[in-house]
């Protein structure tokens, strides 16, 4: 059925057949009033059916998008960069400012014709901590271009980027950068070079000017914080929700851009590691990683029972099998968020394995990795978590530690796979592929493009379906006359 046309055609045909020659030859000429009473309700019913069909047409969801299998678009044995000159590269190599086996890709995000890649300085010898590669493939292992520039990645310069774990691009084209400020986090002597900060760049201007917001020491400890991932909510003053998997003080950092205010939300049961989930085994390699709150995602706007618009933040410790949720209305209320939030946290249930990165699309579908299962999974948040999880890719050779996801503007999802378990054990072999970017067409867009909800129910005019239903009693009454 293609909407109102078919319904109107069917009703019209049936009405003509019911009137037929017998009506014209007998009933109409013998009793005009009775014929009118017969035809009027049929006309009303026809209008009602047409209106209902039109409403169905307007509210019907488009068919599900065409899905593709994930495929490798980029892969590297070791990460190299676009250097100012070959001599500069040699200089960095000879002075150990560039150690290829110490350079790992972690985060990914999309804007325009570039994929932004984060390169955290967990070890020495990482010359740049934020870089780009082209979206359009020209090489299977492209060299990374430091972003915004080589100078903006200078180690020890607090006006430059020091340790970028993850980035996000909001719906206004603003790049939000998590700069931990502390380097060498996998060494015996991590060094706090600069204050942990949020750095914003307006990508639309092309000027790439950095606006820095240092986070206060009463919110994050400069010597122990580890700002891991973030989501951005472009409502009511632009909020960022950031996971801090600090070993001593884990929590969710809330940053409000409007007044550069930040605070921290703590909930020990949901934000600290679970002792039974610190052990990982991937392709015969075992590693113990006791890591607190890590992955984070932001759901689309929803209308609460009181009529207000709210959103849900989903999160999990790396060392956990559980997924948790808390509403943004709680996180944005500083007096509430800095108190006991236990009653506001929902434990959604168990996953088959631990998760590092996750990402929500604009329709409320969560994409996430299951590390121990070599799996990429998804969950439509409109369904129950325990029964709604779905595996969309599994491959022990190519899906070895899913770290982060991003979406482009053409319905594609990208995934960083980085074999982190080898990196933290210092077992990276430059004779093997260590880092991959996978891509699949899913028809999805990032959660930052989720549509704002319309006015509260009751403020708008009645829909066509409601109007159609209102006509039915009158039609039935006329038929019974």
UniProtKB/TrEMBL annotation:
SUPFAM superfamilies: Calcium-dependent phosphotriesterase. Keywords: Membrane, Secreted, Signal, Transmembrane, Transmembrane helix. The keyword Secreted applies. InterPro entries: 6-blade_b-propeller_TolB-like, MRJP/yellow-related. It is found in: Secreted. Signal peptide: none annotated. The chain crosses the membrane at residues 459-480. Belongs to the major royal jelly protein family. This is Yellow-x.
């Amino acid at each position: 059925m293609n909407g109102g046309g078919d319904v109107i055609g069917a009703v019209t045909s049936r009405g003509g057949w019911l009137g037929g020659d017998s009506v014209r030859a007998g009933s109409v000429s013998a009793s005009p009033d009775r014929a009118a009473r017969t035809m009027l309700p049929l006309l009303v019913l026809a209008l009602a059916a047409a209106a209902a069909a039109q409403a169905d047409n307007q509210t019907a969801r488009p068919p599900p998008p065409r899905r593709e299998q994930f495929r490798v678009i980029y892969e590297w044995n070791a990460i190299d960069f676009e250097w100012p000159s070959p001599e500069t590269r040699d200089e960095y190599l000879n002075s150990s400012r560039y150690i290829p086996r110490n350079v790992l890709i972690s985060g990914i995000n999309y804007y325009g014709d570039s994929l932004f890649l984060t390169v955290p300085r967990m070890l020495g010898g990482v010359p740049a901590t934020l870089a780009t590669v082209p979206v359009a493939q020209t090489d299977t292992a492209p060299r990374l271009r430091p972003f915004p520039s080589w100078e903006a990645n200078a180690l020890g310069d607090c006006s430059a980027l020091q340790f970028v774990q993850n980035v996000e691009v909001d719906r206004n084209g603003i790049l939000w950068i998590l700069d931990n400020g502390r380097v060498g986090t996998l060494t015996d002597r991590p060094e706090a070079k600069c204050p942990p900060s949020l750095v914003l760049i307006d990508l639309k201007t092309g000027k790439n000017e950095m606006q820095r917001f240092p986070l206060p020491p009463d919110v994050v400890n400069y010597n122990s914080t580890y700002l891991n991932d973030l989501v951005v909510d472009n409502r009511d003053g632009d909020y960022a929700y950031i996971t801090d998997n600090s070993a001593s003080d884990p929590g969710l950092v809330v940053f409000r851009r409007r007044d550069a205010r930040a605070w921290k939300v703590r909930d020990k049961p949901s934000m600290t590691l679970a002792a039974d989930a610190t052990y990982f085994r991937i392709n015969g390699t075992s590693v113990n990683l006791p890591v607190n709150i890590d992955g984070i995602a932001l759901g689309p706007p929803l209308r609460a029972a009181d009529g207000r618009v709210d959103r849900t933040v989903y999160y999990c410790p790396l060392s956990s099998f559980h997924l948790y949720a808390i509403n943004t209305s709680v996180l944005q209320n500083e007096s509430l968020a800095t108190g006991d939030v236990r009653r506001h946290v929902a434990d959604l249930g168990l996953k088959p394995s631990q998760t590092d990165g996750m990402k929500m699309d604009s329709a409320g579908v969560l994409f996430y990795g299951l590390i121990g299962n070599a799996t990429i999974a998804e969950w439509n948040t409109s369904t129950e978590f325990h029964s709604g999880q779905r595996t969309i890719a599994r491959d022990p050779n190519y899906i070895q530690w899913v770290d982060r996801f991003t979406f482009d503007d053409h319905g594609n999802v990208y995934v960083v796979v980085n074999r982190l378990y080898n990196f933290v054990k210092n077992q990276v072999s430059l004779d093997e592929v260590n880092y991959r970017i996978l891509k699949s067409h899913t028809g999805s867009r990032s959660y930052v493009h989720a549509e704002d909800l319309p006015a509260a129910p009751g403020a708008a005019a009645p829909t066509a379906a409601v109007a159609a239903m209102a006509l039915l009693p009158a039609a039935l009454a006329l038929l019974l006359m």
